[in-house]
Amino acid sequence: MKDLIGTMMEYESGELSDLKTLKLFSFLIKSGRAWELQGSYGHTAHALIQDDWISKEGKINSNKVEQNGI
Question: Based on the number of CB atoms within 10 Å of its own CB, is 45 exposed (0-12), middle (13-18) or buried (19 or more)?
Fold first, then answer.
């Protein structure tokens, strides 16, 4: 991810689209950083995995994204 800190700041201020949020968490899960950051990142990553938006390996579920018009 090109500008991780900037993207995280946008996420925290509620400025990221749903798709960009999924891409951010996909990257954080793939890199393992989701589990190293403050608790809310880990909790959100876990919820996205449980809700089948992103796999445990960090792959975005494109079928679900398509079905939900994201």
Answer: buried
Residue 57: domain span = 4-67
Flag whether pLDDT at 66 surpasses 90. Answer: yes
Closest C-alpha among 55, 45, 30, 56 to residue 64: 55
Find the length of the chain.
Answer: 70
**Residue 58 backbone zone (phi > 0: left; psi -120 to 50: alpha; other: beta):** left
Question: 0.85 exceeded by the pTM?
Answer: yes
**Rounded mean pLDDT, 20-35:** 97
**Number of domains composing the chain:** 1
**Block residue for tokens 């993207």:** 7
